Amino acid sequence: MTKKKKKNKTFPDIHWLYEASVQNVDTDLDFGVRIYRKHWKRKPLTIREDFCGTAKLAARWAQRNKLHEAWGIDFHQPTLDWGVKYNVSDLTEKQRKRLHLIHGNVLEETTPKVDMAFALNFSFCVFKKRDVLRDYFKKVCKCLNKEGLFVLDIYGGTEAIMEKEDDVREIPGLTTPDGLEIPDFEYIWDQAYYNPINHDTTCHIHFNVPGYGRIEKAFTYKWRLWTLMELQEILKEAGFSTAEVYLHDFDDDGESDEIYRLRKTYENVQGWVAYVVGVK
């Protein structure tokens, strides 16, 4: 990654910028609980967060209820370490005992059976081959209790398969636990490459923070952009009884209303984000 910053200014840690721009773990957890209760009329108690990164979602689950337990898996130890320092440190001793973080490969690691598993922020798109993705889905299916859900998210739309770099959102500022004040900043989503033959895509996240400057390619992703139909088919091939698609509507400004409803049809709009749910 390349930083462009002013002298004598240490650029804010990119993990803070990422979490503020991309993650809303309470929304994700609330969605999972709602769909779980719809199917089984009870609240889930245990979760697994794959590709957990800083483990913010897993930590939040352990924090929510004294009966909650969570596992998180990620292959990148420095990111896990950052999460332990900033997301796990806020937990009480009892809450930390109900959070288990594993440094490893989601294709290889095992955990006790859980009620819900999550693979969010399009992370599973790192698997570009159908057989590999199916093997991963099989692994998740086996880790779920008999009454279990697997929650994925994916993006799409007519502009999702175009090379473009002008998708800019302004993100509210924040103050880190270390006392660093980060002003409102820009999050830039850059779709640098797309191959219509195999759906290979390369995307970058850039940040522009007033008073600090711009950081180019803070994060880079080389994915296969899977379609909703492919994901539903592969989930069923992997052993899930059904696969559901939940999509949002739009407000008067053309932004997502953040209310995800079960869909069978949907307008071919410029951009959307969907939850895909594998039901065991």
UniProtKB/TrEMBL annotation:
Protein name: Class I SAM-dependent methyltransferase
GO biological process, one term: methylation
Entry's EC annotation: 2.1.-.-
Enzyme class (EC, first level): transferase
Gene Ontology molecular function, alphabetical: methyltransferase activity
Methyltransferase keyword on record: yes
Keywords associated with the record: Methyltransferase, Transferase
Organism field: Pontiella agarivorans
